[in-house]
Amino acid sequence: MSASTVSRVANGKKYVNSDKRQRILRLIQETGYVPNKAARSMVLKKTSSVGLVIPDTFNIFQRELFSIIERSLEAFGYYTMFFFSKFEDTSENNCLNKLKAENLDGIVVLHEMKNAAFYEYLYKACIPAVTATFRYPGIPAVHVNEEQASTDAVSHLLSLGHRDLVMISGDGFTFGRQRAEGFFQALTAADIDFDVKRVVFVRNYTAEFGVYGMRELLLRRGVGQNFTALFAATDELAIGAIRVLKDAGMRVPEDISVVGFDDVDISDYIIPRLTTVRQPIKEIGEQTALALHRRISEGSVVPEDQVLPHRLIIRESTQAIRFMAKQDAE
Amino acid sequence: MSASTVSRVANGKKYVNSDKRQRILRLIQETGYVPNKAARSMVLKKTSSVGLVIPDTFNIFQRELFSIIERSLEAFGYYTMFFFSKFEDTSENNCLNKLKAENLDGIVVLHEMKNAAFYEYLYKACIPAVTATFRYPGIPAVHVNEEQASTDAVSHLLSLGHRDLVMISGDGFTFGRQRAEGFFQALTAADIDFDVKRVVFVRNYTAEFGVYGMRELLLRRGVGQNFTALFAATDELAIGAIRVLKDAGMRVPEDISVVGFDDVDISDYIIPRLTTVRQPIKEIGEQTALALHRRISEGSVVPEDQVLPHRLIIRESTQAIRFMAKQDAE
DNA sequence: ATGAAAGCGCTAACAT
DNA sequence: ATGTTAGCGCTTTCAT
Fold first, then answer.
1. Domain locations in chain A?
2. Could you say which of A102, A308, B88, B261 is the most buried, measured as most Cβ atoms within 10 Å of its Cβ?
């Protein structure tokens, strides 16, 4: 029989005698035949593959997220190709070139490319894209309300009686600035003095940089500043910061309350269990995949912003301010 | 000019007038032309892509590892495709089928497929493969000596005076059994009674399952058993176990010493800092990529086993046994 | 040094 | 219902 008949069977098309269909199906089984994807995608002019652009170094939350996205995409029948990119021009261009060679059906952007050429290419080449955990004008995004979530975290601290707050954030991504923004908003709303010194920005969102951030904060503390509570822009930053506090003889939460962000899996197991803002990571991943699938299959062009609900998870690392702590300070 | 000339330029072939070459190069730059990978791989009969088979659920160590492998592979000019597989037949077959469709140049196996059909396919289809963190007969492997590493960890506990040891391991992968094996070997070598009750096997290597494991151990403890030290098959298992101990009012390391395995990035920041066995994760990743590259490019068939050196990292979670602890027990 | 032509494995349009 | 043909974008002979 001819190639086209086999093709018809393989793709479940009509117009095939059912005897013949059975026979071909059996043969496919026996020989373990699998159609060549390259050839298929060449004639179909689509690859059933989507690209996932991710940061070269990622924290636990991001790692979790992109594996969820990968699996959700797979459920829709897409293959996922990962593209790592650093926060630097050469790396981004490199990444873009690889992307171009793939004829991807769509792209999920998890890493904020700073080079506008990237987004221009997506636009010109009419490649459906969705961003997750951040926004870019004209592209549908799935994310939480970072400012509001941060404000909620800080409000929790405020409601516990804390007035002297500090924050560790990062300068690498927009969310770092947004979370700091939320921090300041909550503070000003509570009539607390607006002092930029309350926030230290570190290069990365890992525990290692949490250590650096807290050391800096402790240094500042020495020269007149003081604090009873910390808001860390990620759980890992919090873990590093708590480490330093412990080493400096300060107890969490007795002396210092700490709240993190992300609700990474280990946050519920560390000592003390971390109070944090949970991002609905599963939903973010699934909605991102769904949004991209819809853009690809239905060609819906309307860029819609999906803001998913966050939730404050109160655990052990925060507690009401004690008078002792205040007295120690004076 | 003709397509073939452009092709020659794009691939850096000879026999092109240098004026023309310059002109084409410039045009490529300007138009942002990138050759279509599908068409290329069809005629070349190779894809420059390698598959990375990874477990559907992975712990921090594995996540770190496969991102290192991906980057190392990229350095050799390969694209990486990720294939997730569960520990179950349908999922493995599914994974195998996807693999087949790709015409991969090579495959890195990080997930122990139990279905032999998988390895048979690799063999029959002559697809170069390398396994990492475990071994499969006939395939080059990159890994540490799991038994020896475990023995070293236990010896450390022994040298601290501990005699009553327990272990939490998993049954999902070979390394779980190997690490338990090393545990028993160290015990028998030290003339300590060989009691299978000393080890509890959980379904997964995460903190969550560390909690379950320790709860079980504590239950057993109630009925006459006792222990002053724990060896956890992964750092995350250790984190979960320490959590339970803390909740049960036991201090680490004052009452119970704990040693983990992997030296995951956060292990140096948690409270207490975790004593653990470090796997040379970077080297494992790099050597895996290198081994595969060599098999692909040089076609070397000799399956060689690469055993990389581990290292015991002593931190805060272990300390010499105290008499008090012994007395408490009696 | 360059161009023309063939062919990689597949699917879709066209015949029958 | 089935086979034949053309063509996807590239590289590689083979001519010139």
1. 3-35, 47-144+281-299, 146-278+313-329
2. B261
